[in-house]
Design brief:
about 40% helix, single chain, Rossmann fold, elongated, about 240 residues, 4-stranded parallel sheet, alpha/beta
C-alpha cells in the first residue's frame, strides 16, 4: 500500500480540484453539459469509490463505458465453453468470467455439477496444468482487451517453445479503439472527451488513439486508476 499512498494525497487532490473551477477551461462556450467517458470499468469503480463525481464542476458529466470486456461477452461464447467442458476437457479461466451467463447456464453452475473448471490468477498456470495432465486437453478461456491479449500471447509462445500439445485457447478478445469508434459513430452518443485506460495504453501505446482526434476531433487522456491519476487526467481535459 505504501507505493500507492502518494497517488491518494488529499492535499494534492484539493489543489487539482481548485483548478477545475478556474476560468478559461474546456467548459467555456459549450452551452451544454460536457460529457467525459471513462472507458474502463476499473476507472468507473475508482471514480465511485473515491467520490470523484462530487468534485467536478457543475456542467461536467462522467459517462461510464464501454467497461469490462468480460461482462459483455456474448452468451454464445459461454455456451461453447460449457460444451467443451462437457466433452471432458479441463477449462481454465480468470474468476470474472465464471458467473457470466450463457443462454442456459454459467461456468459456475456446471462447475458445481462437477465440470473441471480451474480459476487461475495467471495464464502461466494453464501451462503448468497442461504439463501435469498430458492426457487431457486444457482449454484457456481467453477474454479481454489488449491488456489480456499480451500475456496470453506469451503463454502460447511458451507452449509452442516447449512443444506442449494439449493446450488450446478459446478466444474472445476485444479491442479498445474500435469500441471507441463505434461510440463516436453513434449519433445518439455525445461524448466530448475520453479518459483512456492506463493498462491498455501501456500495451498499445498512444498512437492508436490519434485517429480519434484526427477523425472525430475528440480528445482523450491516458490515466491510471488511483484517485490522483484520474484527477490529473480530468484536469488535462478540462
Amino acid at each position: 500500500m505504501r507505493y500507492t499512498e502518494g497517488f491518494r494525497n488529499a492535499h494534492a487532490a484539493a489543489r487539482i480540484v481548485s483548478e477545475f473551477h478556474k476560468p478559461g477551461h474546456f467548459l467555456e462556450g459549450k452551452g451544454r453539459p460536457v460529457r467525459i467517458m471513462e472507458v474502463c470499468g476499473t476507472h468507473t469503480t475508482a471514480i465511485a469509490r473515491n467520490g470523484i463525481r462530487d468534485l467536478l464542476p457543475e456542467g461536467v458529466q462522467l459517462v461510464s463505458g464501454p467497461g469490462c470486456p468480460v461482462c459483455v461477452t456474448d452468451p454464445g461464447y459461454i455456451d461453447a465453453a460449457i460444451e467443451l467442458a462437457g466433452s471432458g476437457r479441463i477449462l481454465c479461466t480468470f474468476g470474472d468470467l465464471v458467473r457470466v451467463p450463457g443462454s442456459r447456464s454459467t461456468l459456475a453452475h456446471i462447475r458445481a455439477q462437477g465440470a473441471a473448471i480451474h480459476v487461475l490468477c495467471s495464464p502461466t498456470e494453464a501451462l503448468i496444468l497442461a504439463r501435469k495432465n498430458p492426457r487431457r486437453e486444457i482449454v484457456f478461456l481467453a477474454v479481454g482487451f489488449e491488456t489480456t491479449a499480451a500475456p496470453i500471447a506469451s503463454l502460447l509462445d511458451s507452449a509452442v517453445s516447449e512443444n506442449v500439445k494439449n493446450l488450446s485457447l478459446l478466444t474472445a478478445f476485444k479491442r479498445i479503439v474500435p469500441a471507441i469508434y463505434a461510440l463516436l459513430d453513434d449519433p445518439g452518443v455525445q461524448i466530448d472527451a475520453f479518459l483512456l485506460p492506463g493498462h491498455v495504453s501501456a500495451v498499445i501505446g498512444a498512437d492508436p488513439y490519434k485517429p480519434v482526434v484526427e477523425r472525430y476531433g475528440t480528445c482523450g487522456v491516458v490515466a491510471g486508476f488511483e484517485p490522483l491519476d484520474i484527477l490529473y487526467g480530468l484536469q488535462e481535459i478540462l
